[in-house]
């Protein structure tokens, strides 16, 4: 009888030990699966190829811009641009707004009339986007100009602050519409305060 009891105890121990091993194995596999899921979800391993960065790139002087707008000079047999060796290492491209901007000034009976241009060191997509969204850009610029007091136009420092605000407004509109700004600076081509 004691042999039968020992066999039963051994059988129970084997079943209990086997259950513990299976439970441990299930927990280890679940943990490994959860860890692998977390790594894939956060993009640390597998699943996705490197995300392609589709933002406009800085263009070095002399480097070809894959998105360059067609130049009128080249259509007429104009010469290639020759860059100097000094200054910034990146080429600068300009966008000129077609029409003047005319606006009342904040808390004043004065008017401002200005013609603006903007610069970018990025590829030609920024220029294309400025052309495409010119209406929205013009509206944002007019809002900024109308919210500017006359006194701010009277000093070089004030004009610099206005240029920075206009640059920020243009970049905000481009980011809203295209996901990327890219304008480095706004310039006054003409400026009249009346």
Write a structural description.
The N and C termini lie far apart (117 Å). The longest helix is centred in the first third of the chain and has 40 residues, at 2-41. Helix 4 packs antiparallel against helix 5. With 194 residues, this protein is an alpha+beta fold. It contains 5 helices and 4 strands. The protein folds into 2 domains: 1-50; 72-193, Band 7 domain (Tetrahydropterin Synthase, Chain A, 2-Layer Sandwich), CATH 3.30.479. The model has no long low-confidence stretch (mean pLDDT 85). Strands 1, 2, 3 and 4 form a 4-stranded antiparallel sheet that branches. The protein has helices at 2-41, 72-75, 125-132, 134-146, 156-178; strands at residues 93-96, 101-104, 111-120, 185-193. The protein is elongated. Helices cover 45% and strands 14% of the residues. Controls the rotational direction of flagella during chemotaxis. It holds the Pfam family FliL. This is Flagellar protein FliL. One of its GO terms (cellular component) is bacterial-type flagellum basal body. Keywords: Cell inner membrane, Cell membrane, Cell projection, Chemotaxis, Cilium, Flagellar rotation, Flagellum, Membrane, Transmembrane, Transmembrane helix.
What gross morphology would you assign? elongated
Uncertain ranges: none
Overall helicity: 40-55%
- Put simply, the count of helices is 5
According to CATH, the homologous superfamily of the largest domain is: Band 7 domain
The second-level CATH architecture of the largest domain is 2-Layer Sandwich
How many domains? The number is 2
Fill in the CATH topology of the largest domain.
Tetrahydropterin Synthase, Chain A
CATH top level class name of the largest domain: Alpha Beta
Largest sheet: 4 strands, antiparallel
């Amino acid at each position: 009888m004691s042999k039968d009891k020992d066999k039963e105890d051994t059988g129970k121990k084997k079943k209990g030990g086997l259950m513990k091993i299976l439970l441990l194995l299930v927990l280890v596999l679940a943990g490994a699966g959860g860890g692998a899921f977390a790594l894939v979800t956060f993009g640390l391993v597998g699943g996705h190829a490197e995300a392609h960065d589709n933002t406009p790139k800085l263009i070095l002087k002399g480097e070809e811009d894959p998105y360059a707008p067609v130049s009128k000079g080249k259509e007429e047999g104009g010469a290639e641009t020759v860059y100097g060796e000094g200054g910034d290492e990146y080429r600068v491209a300009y966008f000129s707004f077609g029409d003047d901007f005319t606006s009342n000034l904040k808390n004043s009976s004065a008017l401002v009339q200005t013609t603006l241009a903007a610069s970018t060191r990025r590829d030609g997509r920024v220029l294309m986007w400025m052309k495409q969204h010119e209406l929205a850009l013009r509206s944002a610029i007019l809002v900024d100009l109308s919210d500017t007091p006359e006194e701010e136009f009277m000093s070089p420092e004030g004009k610099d602050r206005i240029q920075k605000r206009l640059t920020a407004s243009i970049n905000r509109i481009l980011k809203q519409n295209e996901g990327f700004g890219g304008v480095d600076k706004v310039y006054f081509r003409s400026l009249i305060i009346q």
